[in-house]
């Protein structure tokens, strides 16, 4: 499924009409009917609906919806919130059908907020532009202050469809019925909450007319299709020889988690390059792991011998490495001394900031896995700006430096060096604990050694991580007490769903 910007949604609509013989008012009938049917499924009791209808096509959907709910014998108070002259085109067509069906449009009274139980917000859709003008500003406030269940059509009124919006006033929906395809704002930290629960409803726009947005949502089906099976003839050398570099005196745990996750995710041979002093504490609990030394000073990794990189199918650097400036040379050696797939995370990203020109010149495939704060630092932006524009900032960074980017968060955005994007939304708030990222790094090290397509490797790895968190919470833990090592121990829950 594609993630769309408003402009792309309009293009889809336009193409359906101009090139695929669809009529605008039929598309509107389909949209309103599909949503009405879902409303009837979700609210099957004695609800009393207050439908607020705006002046654009979102309002047009509202006329259809109000008619169908009335046809089904529901109690409906339908309010056109703008003057008659604002209703045009397909919306006017459906307003006429509504009226010819013998149904009336009511005027809004204070009692409507008390005697109804559900407000259906069909005021503004993806065409919203700038700060809300009367009467929408006041109505949005009233909707939000009311005790009615709040249902939004396509998008909560006032909320922009696209990333980038700074100041907006919007309906805080309990449920949003999204028309045809998710909009970018569904995946941004500052806007996703306005949607409440949400469903994407297929209103029958021809798939062939859909625009190539270059951004899609990763699905369980995509994972099943693309996750490589282990051939019966596999041996340890064919399943990936990985190297994890990190873990100073003060943060051995990060290295342990990444290495263990890589092993559990299915790597053939995993080696850790770390300060020798911590090896005795790790080795007994992780007998599958091999070790190689590094140059250290005061417990800080200050250099690696490029020889240890030979024969490796993938290298991950940064977990628990620390930010001592003397470790920067390690990242530099990797950028210049490796040809294979290289993943840079955590403190590795910190050091990378001063090495961006080497990153640009690197020929091998590089993966960066920043969270929002690390991304902000990498691209010299405020955190708030990255939060507002994660799609475009990721795309420009990935293209400029020729890297794959995994911008982590509740909706992780994966971007290829060519600018293609995937949104991966598995996981839950239980992952907001130190160490979740280290586990992800280990998993991604393995998937990137086992998939030929880097996009699939990263999307599938993020899925493996997030879906495991979901399954662990269904079975044993809660979002409060789940810890990153639970993920490592329960990867089999997710693998089993992929068989
Ligand atoms: N593929 C599609 O694009 C489809 C879209 N449909 C519906 O059509 C909607 C988009 O329709 P429109 O383009 O007419 O957009 P809207 O329904 O959002 O209406 C835009 C109109 O609202 C007013 N407006 C915009 N910003 C405002 C502000 N800040 N304050 C006050 N008034 C403001 C303006 O008069 C503008 O023309 C979608 O959200 C969806 O509900 C469906 O009917 C069918 C298919
Ligand atoms: N609220 C959340 N909902 C879903 N996933 C989350 C949430 N918080 C964190 N995550 C996931 O957990 C991981 C955290 O990574 P990171 O911030 O690097 O953690 P750390 O460095 O502490 O190990 C990422 O994969 C991120 O997508
Ligand atoms: K709406």
Automatic annotation (TrEMBL):
UniProt-listed SUPFAM superfamilies: Ribokinase-like, YjeF N-terminal domain-like
CDD domains linked to this entry: YXKO-related
Residue span, YjeF C-terminal domain: 219-498
Binding site for K(+): 58, 121, 157
Residues that, per the record, bind (6S)-NADPHX: 57-61, 125-131, 154, 254, 320, 371, 438
Every YjeF N-terminal domain range: 9-211
Listed GO MF terms: ADP-dependent NAD(P)H-hydrate dehydratase activity; ATP binding; metal ion binding; NAD(P)HX epimerase activity
Record: residues binding AMP: 408-412, 437
Highest rank taxon of the organism: Bacteria
Required co-factors: K(+); Mg(2+)
GO BP field: metabolite repair; nicotinamide nucleotide metabolic process
Record's cofactor remark: Binds 1 potassium ion per subunit.
Similarity comment text for this entry: Belongs to the NnrD/CARKD family.
Subunit structure: Homotetramer.
Protein's name according to its UniProt entry: Bifunctional NAD(P)H-hydrate repair enzyme
């Amino acid at each position: 499924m594609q993630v769309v910007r408003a402009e792309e949604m309009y293009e889809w609509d336009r193409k359906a009409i101009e090139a695929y013989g669809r009529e605008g008012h039929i598309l509107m009938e389909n949209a309103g009917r599909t949503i009405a049917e879902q409303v009837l499924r979700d609210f099957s009791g004695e609800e009393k609906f207050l439908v607020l209808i705006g002046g654009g096509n979102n309002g047009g959907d509202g006329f259809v919806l109000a008619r169908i709910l009335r046809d089904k014998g529901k109690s409906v108070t339908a309010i056109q919130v703008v003057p008659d002259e604002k209703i045009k085109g397909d919306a006017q067509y459906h307003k006429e059908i509504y009226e010819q069906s013998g149904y009336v449009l009511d005027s809004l009274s204070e009692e409507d907020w008390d005697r109804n139980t559900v407000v259906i917000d069909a005021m503004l859709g993806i065409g919203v532009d700038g700060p809300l003008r009367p009467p929408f500003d006041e109505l949005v406030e009233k909707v939000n202050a009311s005790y009615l269940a709040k249902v939004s059509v396509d998008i909560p009124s006032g909320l922009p469809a696209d990333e980038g919006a700074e100041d907006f006033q919007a309906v805080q929906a309990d449920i949003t019925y999204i028309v045809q395809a998710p909009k970018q704002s569904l995946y941004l930290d500052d806007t996703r909450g306005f949607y409440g629960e949400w469903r994407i409803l297929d209103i029958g726009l021809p798939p062939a007319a859909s625009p190539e947005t270059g951004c899609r949502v990763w699905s369980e089906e995509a994972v099943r299709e693309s996750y490589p099976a282990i051939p019966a003839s596999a041996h340890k050398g064919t399943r990936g020889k990985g190297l994890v570099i990190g873990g100073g005196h003060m943060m051995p745990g990060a290295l342990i988690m990444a290495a263990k996750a890589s092993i559990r995710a299915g790597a053939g041979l995993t080696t850790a390059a770390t300060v020798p002093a911590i090896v005795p504490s790790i080795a007994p609990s992780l007998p599958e792991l091999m070790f190689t030394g590094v140059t250290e000073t005061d417990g800080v990794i200050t250099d690696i011998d490029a020889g240890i990189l030979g024969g490796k199918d993938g290298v991950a650097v940064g977990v628990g490495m620390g930010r001592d400036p003397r470790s920067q040379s390690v990242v530099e050696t990797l950028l210049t001394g490796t040809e294979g797939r290289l993943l840079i995370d955590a403190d590795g990203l910190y050091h990378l900031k001063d090495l961006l020109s080497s990153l640009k010149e690197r020929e091998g495939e590089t993966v960066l896995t920043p969270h929002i704060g690390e991304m902000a630092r990498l691209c010299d932006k405020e955190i708030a700006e990255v939060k507002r524009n994660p799609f475009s900032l990721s795309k420009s960074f990935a293209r400029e430096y020729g890297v794959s980017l995994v911008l982590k968060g509740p909706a992780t955005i994966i971007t290829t060096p060519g600018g293609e994007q995937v949104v991966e939304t598995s996981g839950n708030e239980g992952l907001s604990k130190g160490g979740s990222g280290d586990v992800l790094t280990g998993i991604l090290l393995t998937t990137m050694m086992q998939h030929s397509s880097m996009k699939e490797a990263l999307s599938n790895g993020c899925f493996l991580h997030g879906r495991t968190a979901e399954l662990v919470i269904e079975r044993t833990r809660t979002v409060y007490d789940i810890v990153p090592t639970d993920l490592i121990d329960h990867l089999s829950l997710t693998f089993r769903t992929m068989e």
